[in-house]
Amino acid sequence: MKPREIVPDVQYVGAQDFDRRLFDALIPLPDGTSYNSYLVRGRDKTALIDTVEPVMLPVLQAYLKDVARIDYIVSNHTEQDHSGSIPWVLERYPGIELLSSEPAKPMLVDHLGLAASRIRTVADGERLDLGGKTLRFITTPWVHWPETMSTYLEEDKVLFSCDWFGSHMAQTDLFVDGLDCILAEAKRYYAEIMMPFRKIVQKNLDKIKDLEIRLIAPSHGPIHRDPQSIIQAYRDWTDDKPHNSVVIPWVSMHGSTALLVERLVNSLSERGIAVFPFNMSTADIGKLAMSLVDAATLVVAAPTVHVGPHPMVLDAVVLANALRPKVRFASIIGSYGWAGKMVDVIKGAMPNLKVELLPPVICKGLPKPSDLEAIDKLADAVAEKHKGLGLL
Ligand code: FEO
């Protein structure tokens, strides 16, 4: 396999993983993913930016078969899908220098078992002259781990961003083909791994705002030829103001909770509010995460199982709590057979969500007319709150 040029003397040597369907044993990958690695050839020196997931090492090895010398390997991010093949690269090129941010050094030691002496740390803003190709290192923490940095190729104005601006997508075309498609994929990726660090991502966006960027070359998914579109999308996703939407993760065992959800979906829709219901017995949690990026309100809907909420709904609450979306309001609806502590358990599972709790609606058995009226009142309360934020 021959390396493919993305700009003169910068080649793609990464791997497209069409078959992978799960990341971190958690995140669905409907369109596979890629692990992008780039070779930057200066007049005097050559640098490799990131590597590939170890299972795809044979692809990197094939690309580098005829590359006799590499002087530097830049580790933008120590998670193993990008760093996992570094040990092979160090062995293949004994004189190579491994460059990383300061906080990345102990992480490379811990995760890959590397000797600390093999790693040279670079400072924020430090430059590396390869001869007509100058790399500038920019620390961009928490996209997605605390040690992450981006590498900017000054002459060609390429930002190697690693996880951020990336997307889980495998395709043979190295460049973005279709803006709507890539923004959806990139939003899914942002939601799954970067949303908890929204405020820091805003700071990173500020940090690169004066950088002249022609290409953003992430380490997952295709390369952006229109950097401003994805940067603006990140601005929207990280913005403090939510959208006029409600997310409802729900499950129903015998139909009672489903009736409450159906009534709430209709009632909110009639009031001009966008609703995203997710039946957790079949839902794609990536889509749930995407909807949480913008939502102003979260309504958790569960039947009772052994006095607590149905575990599938509790999973969704735990996920939302971990992702820390910008939701401002929350409520709980559901049903029980004879007794339950569902509301307390759900409330206790979302301490990270800084939300105002609207009155829950819990019914015994099938919803009565009064329960459905209470659902309409909840929809009224949500609409009032959204109006208060200027969303309606
Ligand atoms: Fe693609 Fe955080 O690794």
Describe this structure in words.
The chain is α/β, with parallel strands linked by helices and 392 residues long. It has 12 helices and 23 strands. It has a 7-stranded mixed beta sheet, covered by helices on one side. Strands 17, 18, 19, 20, 21, 22 and 23 form a 7-stranded mixed beta sheet that branches. Strands 12-13-14-15-16 form a 5-stranded mixed beta sheet, with no helix packed on it. α8 links the parallel β17 and β18. α5 crosses α7 and α6 packs antiparallel against α7. It is elongated and about 80 Å long. The site of MU-OXO-diiron has 7 residues, from α2.
Kindly state the mean pLDDT as a whole number? 96
* Unreliable stretches: none
Helix-and-strand structural type: alpha/beta
Q: Strand tally, please?
A: 23
* DSSP strand content: 25-35%
Profile the largest sheet.
7 strands, mixed
Shape: elongated
Level of helix content?
A: 25-40%
Strand order of the largest sheet: 1-2-7-8-9-10-11
User: Rg from C-alpha positions?
Assistant: 24 Å
C-alpha end-to-end distance: 55 Å
Structure annotation, total helices: 12
User: What is bound: which ligands?
Assistant: MU-OXO-diiron
